[in-house]
Amino acid sequence: MEIIILKDAQAGSEVGGKIVANLINEKPNAVLGLATGSTPVMLYNEMIKWHKEKGLDFSKVRTFNLDEYIGLEKNHYASYYRFMNENLFDEINIPEENKNIPNGLAENIKQHCLDYEAKIVEEGGIDLQVLGIGSDGHLGFNEPTSSLASRTRIKTLDEQTRDDNKRFMKDGDPVPYHCITMGMGTVMDAKTNLLFAFGENKADAVQQMVEGAISAMCPGSALQMHPNAIIILDEAAAAKLSKADYYKWVYNNKPKWQTY
What is the mean pLDDT of residues 147-155? Predict the structure, then answer.
């Protein structure tokens, strides 16, 4: 793991934007894995800036989203399909046919999940997967106890996750109980994993992910075994890391060719 600790979420998102831009400049038809929730919104703002202000071209980029709720129409205010359009896709030049988001209304969910995995392979695999981490250590909707070798599948959401996501619902609407999510095995197949965690409420999960035992109880800890996992944190999210000073020293003393 490469641990990058910066002063705040804005600084972290700016570094993340450079990482994504560097990849697309080097490989215009890169395959991006994308996440939803509040954490990646600032990253998506940076990607939009790179497109509008610096001409970053997304016309050949292919994308796969991590997850989607089961049972929500695409135009539902809480669907991840709508989230992606409003927070990224509507502002960049990515063709509609290049976007892949799990279909929570698929007639045959099991087959849809198998087809989603096959499409990722067909596109050459994910070059860079954007991730956040839940307060209980989940990645995507891979809840604690999820197999670290799991693939795209239906998942029942933990009550903690449902409680955390209530803030995205309106008028007392319930958070769905089920979702489609890429599995941990799918995430681990990505060539690069780029994870963001901001705020003190993520500090425990971050400590377990980075310095704790590798365990299905903290699915994020599987990234310790990934050959290229980049973890971008603000000071609050890094507050419980015992080696925080070392991670900062390493980042500040990188050779120039390794910097972002």
Answer: 97
